[in-house]
Amino acid sequence: MKATVNGPDGSQPVPLNCGDTVVEISVRSADGSNAQVYTVLVAPELIPMAVTFTDGKQQLDYECPVSLSAYYRPVSINHSDPKRVFSRPYIEMLARRSNVDPLSDCPLGDGWKVVELDLYREMSAALVKCFFICRGCDSVMKLSEPGSHSLDCPHRPTGDLDAEDVTETSWYKKHFASSSCLEIETKHIFEVRNWERRLQMTAGEDNVDKLCALAQDHLKLYRQRLPKPGDTLQYEDGQSPLHGLEQAAVHYASATSSRDARLHFLLGLVLEVQHYATDMYGLQRRLKGTERN
User: Fold this and answer.
1) In angstroms, what CA-CA distances link 167 with 160, 173, 181?
2) Which end of the chain is more exposed for a tag (fewer CB within 10 A), N or C?
3) For the chain, domain boundaries
4) Distance set, CA 288 to CA 50, 232, 240, 283, 285 (Å)
5) Which of 131, 112, 118, 11 is nearest to 69 (CA)?
6) Distances 161 to 149, 195, 204, 269 between C-alpha atoms, Å
7) Which CATH architecture has domain 56-152?
8) Do residues 122 and 103 lie in contact, with contact meaning Cβ atoms separated by under 8 Å?
9) What pTM does this model have?
10) 3-state DSSP helix/strand/coil % of the chain, to nearest 5
């Protein structure tokens, strides 16, 4: 029996792309009467470190618009003009429920995913810097190589770092040794906006601690009511996840009358989550009092 990998010259190592690598293994019987080709798809793990290309233009060309990092297993949206390319895990996550293009809101349709094989090859040959350049490594290699290089890089941080190597330094003692070092002076100007004033009129409570506790309770309800895969996005009046966010915003806005800058920050976080809840979970308010997709 004879087996060859990626052609007759199967003795050479198969270089891996930054995305999927197709490896064809041809097996033929000893008498040559039977043959079978097996296809193995090799997908490298996502390296949890920032990749820095030596070419500034490539740094922009190979950047996923969702993760803002180098493409990982890149795919494009079929018939998109101009062509939109994403890292595969992120576009699949965004299209899992809504099935629309996240940049244009156009329906994706069937067969929308196009594997960018040419882009794989281009990126795999592009030159990048070592992950530990900040520690003094000046090595440059192809994008398909930094994972193996980092295992033997002499500038790689050791795994047995003693905490005292940090806590006993003058830098640490100056900035973190006492709680007073952590206090950051900020200039906070208290100003109540009209929209905050309208929210404050609807809470019916003036105790700051109670207002914050109520806001936390509504945030817990929001998280508990978030839809799970397969759920029908239809809720009774007052039972939607968005209702919990709205009530949390009302209570934090009412608490901001205490002139505590932290409460303004917490209110801003709630309003930000409320703003993106529609995109993340497909939630939106229905005019007749019910919320649905």
Assistant:
1) 15, 7, 14
2) N
3) 2-42, 56-152, 194-292
4) 47, 18, 13, 15, 9
5) 131
6) 21, 51, 54, 36
7) 2-Layer Sandwich (3.30)
8) no
9) 0.49
10) 40, 15, 45
Cα separation, 151 vs 157, in Å, equals: 11
| 260 Cβ contact list (under 8 Å, min separation 6) | 208
Using 50, 70 and 90 to split pLDDT, how confident is the model at 127? very high
Task: Enter the tokens of residue 224.
Answer: 């508990």
SS3 call for 118? helix
Q: What is the C-alpha separation between 130 and 128, in angstroms, rounded? A: 7
**Is pLDDT at 31 greater than 90 in this prediction?**
no
Per the structure block, which two tokens stand in for 26? Answer: 């041809």
d(CA 106, CA 64): 19
pLDDT reported for residue 128:
93
